[in-house]
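does this look right to u?? uridine 5'-triphosphate version
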Amino acid sequence: MPIVKAVIPAAGMGTRFLPATKAMPKEMLPVVDKPAIQYVVEEAVRAGLHDVLMITGRNKNALENHFDRNTELEALLRTKGDQRRLQEVMHSTQLANMHYVRQGDPLGLGHAVLRAQMHVGNSPFAVLLGDDLIDSRDDLLGRMIDVHDQRATSVVALMEIDPALSHLYGIATVEVTDEDDVVKVTGLVEKPSVESAPSNLAVIGRYVLQPDVFSILESTEPGSGGEIQLTDALNTLTTSASGGGVHGVIFRGRRYDTGDRLDYLKAIVQVATSREDLGPDFTTWLREFVTRG
Ligand code: UTP
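got this back:
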């Protein structure tokens, strides 16, 4: 069954980015001149997923407004004859078929994904975390969908990390396959200590999931941090007879966690330097800034 639906959880509290996220969703933080969430929706659309369900919560109205029309602003830009900005403003409205559901209480990523069950139904679907940016020059989701189609299992995205950072991620136990960038996942553990981490392969914010994950999530107890963890449900899926198991695609491209302040700054620099309009001037300034010390 082809994958057509993307689910974007964006209901987290964003505590690592306070006070900026006190009244504004972290997914609306701009990376140059676009909010982080727009890059994520654009990535889903590039992979052919035009049906997007966003999981939102209190304080998240700006997310819906961003993908809705702003007729007053459009009229103003039209009157001014500012076609370029008009196109930019309309672009986010026309990107995808957007749907929204509220999580209520942010009880964890697994709980957020379970809120998508009614919309997704009994088909495989993709999950893209709303604060995780994959550089548009590096394909990840397309590759994950290919692996899902070939192997008919759920697929997680994995990245090699410094083992000292294991306590920040879900970490996978894996077996090699005949493809260099694909592994079979035989176990997953959320935020282990460096001593107990089974590998240096961390789960990052892209998933292609079989619908079996919903029934597993329904009976998944709160885990690390008292939250219902998607990692725990996927760990069950690795051994479940019906769900078809889990594979991992090892991603070696550029990825930024915009919910983390340092990574957010890196994302802005990388995106800005690669832009045709801003890149040359910004790079010249950056070089001077770094040499000045
Ligand atoms: P994070 O753990 O990065 O989000 O979750 P957070 O809880 O907002 O972050 P901090 O630690 O407080 O700063 C990863 C993704 O899952 C979503 C978040 O919005 C983010 O996109 N999420 C997390 C939910 O939608 N619901 C939740 O209950 C938890």
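The mean pLDDT is 95. idk if thats expected tbh
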